[in-house]
What we know:
The protein is built from 3 helices and 10 strands. By secondary structure, the chain is an alpha+beta fold. The chain folds into 2 domains: 26-146, Immunoglobulin-like (Sandwich), CATH 2.60.40; 149-192. The chain has a 5-stranded mixed sheet. The termini are far apart. One 2-acetamido-2-deoxy-beta-D-glucopyranose is lined by residues 36-37, 64.
Amino acid sequence: xxxxxSFCFIFFxxxxxxxISVANSCREFSVIIFNDNIKxxxxxxxxxxxxxxxxxxxxxxSYNESYLWSLCExxxxxxxxxxxxxxxxxxxxxxxxxxxxxxxxxxxxxxSHNRKCTWLIRHDGFYFVDRRTVPPKxxxxxxxxxxxxxxxxxxxxxxxxxxxxTFKFGSERLYLLIRACFSHERTGNGAACNGDGR
Length: 198
Ligand SMILES: *[C@@H]1O[C@H](CO)[C@@H](O)[C@H](O)[C@H]1NC(C)=O
Ligand SMILES: *[C@@H]1O[C@H](CO)[C@@H](O)[C@H](O)[C@H]1NC(C)=O
């Protein structure tokens, strides 16, 4: 009677160990993006850093609504490697930030171990809900970047100056070249029009 019992015992122990290790190899986190009091839609394009599939998650959050996804942190690989980042847009404003990385991670866990990384998007920027304190603390992480009209105008001005200068320089050279060709032709050296411009 002793042999079958020990066989069963070993068999189930092994099964149990496999199940535990499989379950443990993935630690699940949720990323929550919340549109906090912005009347317009906030759009985001989110990616996983160094992910060979390079899938983009298109996140759209309406007024006072949230978007949630779960991620699996692979504990076997180096933990600093799991990085999810998003490029957010709100009208002319934009910002790119990590919504999950090794620095953010501890703030997602807190006392209840529910592993939620909550981001509040407001008119004045991005707030992370740090769960290490009770109640959780909202900490401002990023401002919006404003793609200002002034910047546009400055870029146009610089571009037109460069273009204008290049064009002026170019047209002068072209004029000299044509003139040189014609003068050579008149003197019978037209075939040697090599454009040395003199
Ligand atoms: C949206 O959220 C803000 C801040 O949390 C709140 O003051 C406002 O009443 C909410 N609006 C609606 C329509 O629920
Ligand atoms: C992780 O993300 C946070 C929030 O976006 C950022 O402040 C921090 O610099 C990032 N850490 C690293 C190591 O990139």
